[in-house]
Amino acid sequence: MTAAPSLSAHDVVFELIPRLQATERLVDSTLQSRIDRCSNQVDASKLEELKIEFELEIAMIRMNLEHPMTRYSRQLEAARQNGKTGNRALLTLDAHEAVAVESARTLYRRARELAT
Questions:
Q1: 68-71 contacts at long range (C-beta below 8 A, 24 or more positions apart)
Q2: For residue 71, what pLDDT is reported?
Q3: pLDDT at residue 87 is higher than 80
Q4: Residue 1 domain-assigned?
Q5: Among residues 60, 84, 63, which one has the least CA distance to residue 12?
Q6: Residue 86 included in any domain
Q7: What domain range includes position 34?
Q8: Angle, to 10 degrees, between the axis of helix 95-115 and the axis of helix 41-71?
Q9: What are the CA-CA distances from residue 108 to residues 8, 66, 68 (Å)?
Q10: Number of domains present in the structure of the chain
Q11: Of 2, 49, 61, 81, which one's alpha carbon is 20 to 30 angstroms from that of 38?
Q12: Are 91 and 16 in contact (CB under 8 A)?
C-alpha cells in the first residue's frame, strides 16, 4: 500500500503559493503584453490560446487547493508566522489535491520558460 501524498506547510506557504502567484502575474502581464504587441494574427491567436490554457489550469489548481487550505489553515498560519525556518508539518493530500500541486509546479516551470 502506498502512502498518501503529502506536502509540508512550509512548502505551501513559501513555495507553492508564491510560485502560483508568479505564474498568474506572468499570464496577466507578460503574455498579455506579447499578445498586445503581436502584429501577426496567427501568432497572436496562439498566444491567446496559451493564455486561456494557463488561466484554466490556474483556476483548476486554485479550486483543488481551496479545501486543503481551509482544512490545514492552522498549520499554514503557523508556518507563515514561524518564517522560512519554521513549521514543517506534513499536510496529507487527496488525489485531486496532489494533482493540483504537481500541476502548479509544472505550470510554474512552463511560465518560467516563457519568461526567458
A1: 68/93, 68/97, 69/12
A2: 96
A3: no
A4: no
A5: 84
A6: yes
A7: 6-115
A8: 140
A9: 18, 18, 20
A10: 1
A11: 61
A12: no
CA separation for the pair 61, 12 (Å, rounded): 13
CA dihedral 106, 49, 47, 32 (to 10 degrees): -90
Contact 8, 89 (CB under 8 A): yes
Supply the Cα-derived Rg of the chain in whole angstroms: 17
Structure confidence at residue 85 as a pLDDT band (50, 70, 90): low
Give the whole-angstrom CA distance, residue 73 versus residue 67.
10
| 20 half-sphere exposure, CB direction, 13 A CA radius | 22
In a domain, 55, yes or no: yes
Which residue has cell 498586445?
Answer: 36
**70 Cβ neighbours under 8 A, 6+ residues apart:** none
Q: Fill in the amino acid letter for 75.
A: Q
pLDDT at 23 over 60: yes
